[in-house]
Design brief:
The protein is of the alpha/beta class and about 450 residues long. It contains 12 helices and 22 strands. The radius of gyration is 59 Å and the shape is rod-shaped. Keywords: Hydrolase, Membrane, Metal-binding, Transmembrane, Transmembrane helix.
Length: about 450
């Protein structure tokens, strides 16, 4: 046997074995659960004249569920594309006609209000102005932009750049409002003012103490202007009023004596006690300390004791500090001499003006002048002193005499006749405090001690 024949027989035997093994394997798998013949039929024939051919894949078709899903997806895509196209047309592509204050203006739907205004130069309306705190124009275009209402609804200026005209049918454009510049704020103390009237009578009274106020002040950041925005606490004026009390239905007169006490004071006190008359003594502090028993007698017998300073200076020439010291020391001397606490003053020479009140209103309640000056310091004689009082007497009069500061014998001589003759005319005698109370003079507004 030739070598070729042997090789061919060997090849055929090997193919037979392979074919049988494939069939057995397929039978063991039972691919579709059918009988063996059908399973074998599903396998491609093996061409033993050549190589083995691969099995043919079975043709698969889409199931009904998958087909339905695909159909729905396609439908959704179509609807989405249609909606998107409609939305783009509705809010972007289409042209919108807007009635702007009676004029029809067209623009794309996606045009913002800011662009719409810019394209039409704000429709001839002007922006507001930027004003200073006092109303000065700082920037003619620095205020609010023009105001816009769409379909009757006001659109905030902050939304002009994002709000479109897509739904606009009508639009109203009005000029912008003026704006006041930004500012800083400070709280400041305001000094109190004064209302001092010394021309209405001899009794000057502090009716209101001065009090500083508090204000909120605005300072313009650009202009630097300042205005008072608010009164946090109004300032109160120092108020001094003058009075000439004339008690209704009465006939009273006040006798007053200055510059004591002295050796002349005791005879005067004797006469007053004998005549049952009360008077007011404006005493010097240094004299009160020199004659404390007379001071004490005055108080004990019902007379009013008040201050005439310490040493009789001319007060308008004094500094504020010296003036206050003089007055406070005078009050303290009376307190030491007779335990009298007073804030009533008669300034030496009657010299106590507006500035003195400004300097001392917190320590002085009242300054008492006079309406009858006997000029007894000139020593004109007891008759002249007597007559000066009698011819000038009236209801509420205040007569000035002296019990110190010189020779006062003429006052002692004149005093009994003055009292007797005034009584004959129906007068009664009162102290300054009593005259003020009868005449309705306001109580002093005392400062803080």
């Amino acid at each position: 046997m030739s070598q070729n024949k042997r090789n061919r027989d060997k090849y055929i035997d090997e193919n037979d074995v392979a074919e049988n093994e494939v069939v057995e394997d397929l039978q063991s798998l039972d691919i579709d659960g059918g009988d063996e013949e059908e399973d074998v039929a599903a396998v491609e024939e093996i061409d033993f004249q050549g190589s083995a051919k691969p099995p043919k894949r079975p043709h698969r078709t889409m199931g009904p569920v998958a087909a339905a899903v695909v159909t729905v997806l396609v439908a959704l895509i179509v609807v989405a594309l249609g909606a998107g196209a409609w939305w783009m047309w509705r809010f972007h592509w289409r042209s919108v006609d807007v009635n702007v204050d009676g004029e029809t203006v067209s623009a794309r739907a996606d045009t913002t209000i800011a662009r719409f205004l810019d394209d039409h130069d704000d429709f001839g309306r002007t922006r507001g102005r930027l004003l200073s705190l006092k109303g000065k124009v700082l920037d003619k275009d620095g205020g609010d932009p023009v105001a816009v209402s769409v379909n009757g609804t006001t659109v905030p200026a902050a939304d002009y750049g994002t709000t479109t005209i897509a739904d606009a049918e009508t639009m109203t454009v009005t000029p912008g409002k003026d704006v006041t510049e930004a500012h800083t704020s400070e709280q400041r103390t305001t000094k109190y003012g004064t209302d001092i009237n010394l021309n209405n009578g001899p009794i000057q009274v502090v009716t209101q103490q001065g009090e500083d106020g508090e204000q909120e002040v605005w300072i313009g950041k650009r202009s630097k202007e300042e205005i008072v925005h608010k009164e946090i606490k109004p300032a109160k004026k120092l108020t001094v009023q003058s009075f000439a009390p004339q008690p209704a239905g009465k006939k009273v007169i006040a006798l007053t004596f200055d510059d004591g006490p002295s050796q002349y004071t005791e005879p005067i006190l004797d006469i007053l006690r004998q005549k049952k008359v009360k008077a007011t003594f404006f005493d010097l502090g240094e004299e009160a300390l020199a004659y404390p028993k007379l001071e004490q007698r005055m108080v004990k017998e019902g007379h009013q004791v008040a201050s005439h300073s310490v040493s009789h200076p001319y007060m308008p020439d004094m500094s504020r500090d010296d003036l206050r010291k003089e007055i406070l020391t005078g009050f303290a001397d009376l307190k030491e001499a007779s335990d009298t606490k007073t804030r009533v003053l008669r300034a030496p020479y009657g010299a106590f003006g507006v500035q003195q009140w400004k300097d001392t209103a917190d320590i002085v309640d009242m300054n008492v002048l006079w309406s009858i000056d006997t000029l007894d310091w000139k020593r004109p004689g007891k008759k002249a002193i007597h007559d000066e009082v009698l011819k000038n007497a009236y209801n509420g009069a205040i007569a000035l005499m002296h019990d110190g500061g010189g020779d006062r014998t003429q006052d002692i001589e004149a005093l009994p006749g003055i009292i007797d003759d005034l009584k004959k005319q129906g007068y009664s005698f009162v102290t300054i405090d009593e005259l003020c109370e009868m005449g309705g003079v306001p109580k002093p507004a005392q400062g803080k001690d």
